[in-house]
Design goal:
- The protein has about 400 residues and is α/β, with parallel strands linked by helices.
- It has 3 domains: about 5-115, Roll (CBS-domain), CATH 3.10.580; about 130-260, Roll (CBS-domain); about 270-385, Double Stranded RNA Binding Domain (2-Layer Sandwich), CATH 3.30.160.100.
- The chain contains 13 helices and 14 strands.
- The chain has a 4-stranded mixed beta sheet. The chain has a 3-stranded mixed beta sheet with strand order 1-2-3.
- A hairpin with a 2-residue loop joins strand 4 (about 100-105) and strand 5 (about 110-115).
- The longest helix is centred in the last third of the chain and has 22 residues, at about 350-375.
- The model has no long low-confidence stretch (mean pLDDT about 85).
C-alpha cells in the first residue's frame, strides 16, 4: 500500500450529464470546460464515464448530431474515498481511464481522481526520486519522416501503441500520436460523408509524416527523476514523454501508465501481471469477460519462465457489425510488456473468446520461437508441435 487515501488527492469538482442527453451537449461541455471526463448519470444514479477520445472514436460508428450519450459512454468502477492510491492506480490501468469517480456508492458520487494528480502526490515521496530509466519502455518503435500516415496507423494498430517518435539520421525529428491522426485523417472523412465538408479536400493517408508530425517534441533525459517527469507532463497536459540521450537519440518512452504500474503493484504483493481491457471490452457479458480474464491468467501461468517475472497485458477488443449465425466478428489486439521483452499479436474470429485465443496462440508461437532460438530444450517439443511439424 502507498498509505495515502484517495480522498487526499480527489477533487470535488466534476462535470456530469444525463445518459439520455444528445452527444452534442457533451461535446459542448468538453469545448467549454475541457474536463478529463464527464460522469454519466441516469437521473441520480451514476452509470459510467465519457471522454473526448470516446467521442472522437464514436465518429466511426455514430453520427454525433444524432447520437445520444448512452450510445458512446463506458461503464467504470467507483473508488471509495478511503481506498489506497495503489488501488486507484490498479483500476485506472485495468479499465484504461485517466480519471475515475469517487464516492461511497453509485448513488453518492462526491468527486473524481485523475492519474496525473495521483502521480504528483506519490512522486513527493521516495518514488519521485527514481530515475526515468528505471520505468521507461526501452524497446521503442520509431518511424521515418518519409513514412506515410497509413503506415503509422498500421504500426499503431499492430503494436497497440498510441504514439510513435519520428527519427531521421538516428536522431529525434518529431512525434505522431493516434489522437492527432484520428482528428486529422479519420474524423474529416465521416464529416464529409455527412456533407459537412462539401468542397473541402480530405487529406490522403499517403501523406508523409514529415508533413503532420509534431516538431517541438517535449522530451526528458533518462537520468531525470520521476518527480521531474510528472511535473513536465502536468505542466504540458500530456500523458507521455520521449526519452532522449545527450545526442538527441531516442532511448525510451515514459508514459503515465508506465508510472502507474509500480504503484498499482503495491495493492497485492503476489500480483505479477496486470491485464488492461480496452476498446469494446465493456460491452462483453460478465461471463465472457471473466472467461477471457481466466484464460489470460492460465496462459501467463503456463509460460511464466518465458514471459518474465512481471509486466502488463494490454488487450484491445473490437466488435464489428458483421454476424455469422448471430455471433459478431471480433478482433483482439494483444500486447504483453514484461521485463523480458514485448510480445504483440492480433486475433480475429466469430466471438470474443475465440478471437482472444487466436491472439494468445500467436504470442505462444513467439514465445516458443524465442525459447528455441535460445536453445531451451524444455520447450523444443512444444515449439515443433505449434509449427505443426
Amino acid at each position: 500500500m502507498v498509505g495515502i487515501p484517495v480522498k487526499e488527492v480527489m477533487t470535488d469538482r466534476f462535470q456530469k450529464i444525463d445518459i439520455g442527453s444528445p452527444l452534442s451537449e457533451a461535446i459542448g461541455i468538453f469545448e467549454k470546460e475541457d474536463p478529463d471526463l464527464i460522469l454519466v448519470f441516469d437521473r441520480s444514479m451514476y452509470k459510467g464515464v465519457l471522454t473526448q477520445d470516446m467521442i472522437i472514436r464514436s465518429h466511426l460508428k455514430w453520427d454525433p448530431t444524432k447520437a445520444k450519450v448512452r450510445d458512446v459512454y463506458k461503464p467504470a468502477p467507483v473508488l471509495k474515498p478511503d481506498e489506497d492510491l495503489s488501488r486507484a492506480a490498479k483500476l485506472m490501468l485495468e479499465v484504461d481511464l485517466r480519471s475515475l469517480p469517487v464516492g461511497e456508492s453509485k448513488a453518492n458520487i462526491t468527486g473524481v481522481i485523475s492519474d496525473i494528480e495521483l502521480l504528483k502526490r506519490t512522486s513527493e515521496d521516495r518514488f519521485g526520486r527514481d530515475k526515468v530509466e528505471d520505468h521507461m519502455t526501452r524497446n521503442v518503435i520509431t518511424l521515418s519522416p518519409n513514412d506515410t500516415v497509413a503506415k503509422a496507423f498500421a504500426v499503431m494498430r499492430d503494436n497497440a501503441i498510441s504514439r510513435i517518435p519520428i527519427v531521421e539520421n538516428g536522431k529525434l525529428a518529431g512525434l505522431v500520436t493516434l489522437h492527432d491522426l484520428i482528428l486529422r485523417f479519420i474524423k474529416p472523412r465521416f464529416r464529409a460523408t455527412a456533407g459537412e465538408l462539401a468542397g473541402e479536400k480530405v487529406p490522403p493517408f499517403s501523406t508523409k509524416l514529415r508533413e503532420v508530425m509534431i516538431r517541438s517534441v517535449i522530451t526528458i533525459g533518462p537520468e531525470a527523476t520521476v518527480k521531474k517527469a510528472v511535473s513536465i507532463m502536468s505542466e504540458n497536459d500530456i500523458d507521455g514523454l520521449v526519452v532522449v540521450d545527450g545526442s538527441n537519440r531516442v532511448v525510451g518512452i515514459l508514459t503515465v501508465k508506465d508510472l502507474l504500474l509500480p504503484i498499482s503493484k503495491m495493492t497485492e504483493k503476489e500480483a505479477r501481471f496486470y491485464l488492461q481491457l480496452a476498446g469494446d471490452a465493456h460491452i462483453l457479458s460478465d461471463f465472457t469477460r471473466e472467461r477471457i480474464i481466466e484464460d489470460v491468467r492460465r496462459f501467463v501461468d503456463g509460460y511464466e519462465e518465458l514471459l518474465g517475472s512481471e509486466g502488463i497485458i494490454y488487450l484491445y477488443i473490437r466488435r464489428f457489425r458483421e454476424k455469422f449465425r448471430g455471433v459478431h466478428l471480433y478482433q483482439a489486439r494483444t500486447r504483453i510488456v514484461t521485463d523480458k521483452g514485448m510480445f504483440v499479436a492480433t486475433g480475429e474470429s466469430w466471438g470474443a473468446i475465440p478471437a482472444v485465443h487466436d491472439a494468445l496462440r500467436a504470442i505462444e508461437r513467439q514465445l516458443l520461437q524465442k525459447a528455441e532460438l535460445e536453445k531451451d530444450v524444455r520447450y523444443a517439443k512444444r515449439f515443433l508441435e505449434k509449427l505443426e511439424f
